Amino acid sequence: MIDVTAYLPGRIKRNSSGWINFDAPCCIHNGTSADHRKRGGLKVQESDWIYHCFNCGFSTSFTLGRTLTVRARRVLGWLNVPAEEIERMNLESLQHRGALGILDDRRNMMQQLSNIRFDEHYLPNPTQPLAEEAATYLTRRAIPLDYPFLSTGIGRPGIIVPFTHDQTVVGHSVRFLDSRMPKYIQRTQPGYVFGTDLQRDAWHTAIVVEGVFDALSIDGLAVLHAEINDAQVRLIRSLERDVIVVPDQDLAGMSLVDRAVELNWAVSMPEWPAGIKDVNDAVICMGRVATLLTIMQSREHNRVKIELRKRQIVKRLR
């Protein structure tokens, strides 16, 4: 197991309670000024350790026998621990715990998810299989047709998007295809996040967007409006992933930026070609892979840089 203290920057100071203080490396990554007053703290007990910054508030910990978390990996990277050493540390920890311990971790995570429940919901009646007009519309918007879309059975022609959680239908959205208003009708439950069933166990990042079609374009998570409520935060955090929030590039979407900064989540506001305001627009224009690349390349944790980019967008819109 690596000695984390060997990677601490500059001069360190030890106090009687067991904390080692040093200039925190996390602050510049979390939107605050660099720390030069030794407000970073590390407390080591055998192979376990706790990290806390008394400046920007970032904290994480490591316990031998558990998986190295995203936040722990992040602070090790900021301390310039080589990537191969971080992976070796994680492997040794898992070997120490063994298969039964890993299964316990998985069960605990699934139990956490199972505590988030939504009532089963019935779709509008009648419905019919996806009509040709609806399939053409989805294809034009670069939406994969492997999602279980349906079409409205009577009245206005429209596409029904079932909302699922743990493979159970818990709501829906209807996108009407005629020129009448409203274009959308949505039935959802408090705290619901669309797209949790699209996520894969091997993924380390979750991309949070506003709209359903944005999420379907890139297998992301949609919060269904230009805000993220506390219940949605709990659901997203239960996935235990790095989070990147990609707001619509309009005035309403900027409130999503403020919430992401408050939650210490990364924000991505790529400089897309003129006329593109959201993820689905970008996928239509550039394709899925190119859109994902721009999102990953533009992700930002620094609050000052996020605010500057936000101001650029607002200025352009006005």
Note the main attributes of this structure.
single chain; alpha+beta; Dna Topoisomerase Vi A Subunit, Chain: A, domain 2; 3 domains; five-stranded antiparallel β-sheet; 15 strands; elongated
Describe the protein in words.
The mean pLDDT is 90. Helices cover 34% and strands 20% of the residues. The longest helix is centred in the first third of the chain and has 32 residues, at 83-114. A five-stranded antiparallel beta sheet has the order 1-2-3-4-5, with helices on one face. A five-stranded antiparallel beta sheet has the order 6-7-8-9-10, with no helix packed on it. Helix 4 packs across helix 7. It folds into three domains: 4-114, no CATH class; 120-189; 201-318, Dna Topoisomerase Vi A Subunit, Chain: A, domain 2, CATH 3.40.1360.10. It contains nine helices and 15 strands. By secondary structure, the chain is an alpha+beta fold.
- Compute the gyration radius: what is it? 23 Å
Tell me the name of the CATH class of the largest domain. Alpha Beta
Unreliable residue runs: none
The helix fraction, in percent, is: 25-40%
Give the distance, in angstroms, between the N- and C-terminal Cα atoms: 55 Å
CATH architecture of the largest domain: 3-Layer(aba) Sandwich
Helix-strand pattern: EEEEEHHEHEEEEEHEHEHEHHEH
* Class from secondary-structure proportions: alpha+beta
